Amino acid sequence: SLLISSSSHFLPPQGVRLSYGTAGFRADASLLSSTVYRMGILAALRSLKTQAVIGLMITASHNKISDNGVKIADPNGGMLSQHWEPFADALANAPSPQDLVQLINDFVKEGIPFNGVRPAEVILGRDTRPSGDALLKAAKEGIASIVGAIATDMGILTTPQLHWMVRARNMGMKASEEDYFEQLSSSFRCLMDLIPSEKSNRSGPNDKLVVDGANGVGGGNLEVLLKQLNGLSIEIRNYGEDGGVLNEGVGADFVQKEKVVPNGFDSKDVGIRCASLDGDADRLVYFSVTAESNGKIELVDGDKILSLFALFIREQLIILSEEEDAKNSRQAHLGVVQTAYANGASTNYLKQLGLEVNFTPTGVKYLHEKAAEFDIGIYFEANGHGTILFSEDFSGWLVAKTKELSSKSKGSELEKAALRLLAVNKLINQAVGDALSGLLLVEVILQHMGWSIHRWNELYHDLPSRQLKVKVADRTAVVTANAETVVVSPLGLQEAINAETAKHSQGRCFVRPSGTEDVVRVYAEASTQEAADSLANSVAKLVD
Ligand code: 16G
Ligand code: ZN
Q1: How far is CA 412 from the centre of its chain?
Q2: How far apart are CA 508 and CA 527, in angstroms?
Q3: 383 labelled as ligand-binding?
């Protein structure tokens, strides 16, 4: 058959077992062509099964340039349904073309329609990695091996753009790259127009933002976006076209983990508002360079972006809830979602605001799923990946509300609050965390509040923390529960961690197996840096 002959060109690497982890398959790019080919097949089957457009993205995000990866976007633009992950694993590891065909036949028999249905349609994107082009061809061949399947190559994109396009296509909306830029820029302009007038002249030439593009796809795309905007002064560095290497000493992951300036930034930038994207632009952190000479920064991480977003949304909801005509008002349920990596000070701050804080295990799919339970759900990982979700029901209410208010109380604070929420609903990428839409929202909220990055950073003070990784023989031996905060196996380990933690004031510590690397990670937090370091070190010894 077609499948047998085409799959014989893509034999899996010997002696390597790949698994569909938190962010899809990731490995050295030279090992991936068979996996990507097979994920092309999976994407086409998923499209037949759901009768919707599916996305396939080739990226290894913040990892080194020689790595690559592949992940699938589901019809709603989110991560592949977890029910399909075992099938993805099985396909990737099937030893021969015959085994592969057998697997597919068995799977199809369980209920994938082939006849009288809309053909499979997969849209593809890749980041700037040099290995991406060949891998994209492999994905296309995989898709083409399913009869009638259509593959649309969108070229080099940020990961969130591809997810956005899948979601837009399946909602029947315009879904090209131009449409993406147009939606972001028009909703951004709308939010700018709604800034209280006493604050709208704050930004001047001294208020520029400097962005580190991680030498990836984000810098160039941000530049395209900027051409459609007014009122933002942004300088972009680390485009990736001036000799810099993707993610090497640059980018959101580096800045957040190392807490030092990325390449291209130095003491001349002291005090300026800076931001870092990761290699595929689905993470965003802010920072400012401190006057100390050793490249130290003040880090404004995902937790603080979450706090800023939560404050702004809450402010608009409070205005709306003060509406006198109670019969049309609606008490919106706002929830925030974090992981155990969220700094304890951020959680306290959010709780103090009266917000409901929820915890899930690490990984976008878990946070996203939880946030979708609210009228407005905001999720962020400390590493800078996060977004805001508006429920369908609440979005509908908001549209009706703004219509009603535009005739009843045009120009009122009430109308402005509703219009702001509606604009956030359009600006923020609701398929997945998006550094570009997140950056625009941060910028407009800072202007709305009249805040500098320092004022923002003062919302609360991070507790000192330390992260370590421990190489172990078998990381799956560590099993956790309660959103990764408690070890249930091996027996006795949690008790030992508790005993260490109790020795430190404001101590908090947890360990978990990484979903992307062959290590166990240790996180510790305490009232001083020395205490956090010592707690992390002693717990790392317990794991070893
Ligand atoms: C992946 C996840 C990210 C998570 C990270 C943790 C997605 C799209 N990405 O990059 O959310 O923070 O893994 O890595 O889910 P770790 O398991 O190695 O600590
Ligand atoms: Zn990324």
Answers
A1: 35
A2: 10
A3: yes
Q: Is 346 flagged in the annotation as binding?
A: no
Same domain, 441 and 496: no
Residue 240 in domain: yes
- Give domain status of residue 287, yes or no: yes
For residue 384, report the distance from its CA to the centre of ligand 1, in Å: 11
Q: Report which of residues 131 and 2 the model is more confident about.
A: 131
Asked whether 381 lines ligand 1 (CB < 6 A), one says yes
pLDDT of residue 324: 60
Question: What's the pLDDT tens digit per position in 227-252?
Answer: 999 878 999 999 988 789 999 999 99
Of 7, 34, 47, 61, the active-site residue reads: 61
Is position 6 annotated as part of the catalytic site?
A: no
Is there a cis peptide before residue 13, judged by omega within 30 degrees of 0? Answer: no
Residue 120 is assigned to a structural domain of this protein: yes
Sign of CA dihedral 26, 30, 34, 39: positive
Backbone angles phi, psi at 472, to 5 degrees: -130, 165
Q: Is residue 431 in a domain?
A: yes
CB atoms within 10 A of CB 92: 24
Structure confidence at residue 405 (pLDDT): 93
Q: Assess whether the C-beta atom of 514 lies below 6 angstroms from ligand 1.
A: yes
Nearest to 225 by CA among 264, 195, 186, 279: 186
pTM for the full model? 0.96
Query: Which residues form the domain of 100?
Result: 2-156
Q: Residue with the nearest Cα to atom 19 of ligand 1?
A: 514
Grouping H, G, I as helix, E, B as strand and the rest as coil, residue 191 is helix
Residue carrying the six token digits 């709604």? 194
User: Both 256 and 389 in a single domain?
Assistant: no
pLDDT of 326 > 80? The answer is no
Same domain, 7 and 143: yes
β partners of residue 51: none
Residue 5 has pLDDT above 90, yes or no: no
Domain boundary residue, one of 429, 457, 485: 457
CA distance 278 to 254: 9
The bound ligand whose nearest atom lies closest to the alpha carbon of 60 is 2
The residue whose CA is least distant from atom 2 of ligand 1 is 363
Q: Which ligand has its closest atom nearest to the C-alpha of 216?
A: 2
| Whether 294 and 326 share a structural domain | no
Q: How many domains does the chain have?
A: 4
Tell me what the mean pLDDT of segment 129-156 comes to: 97
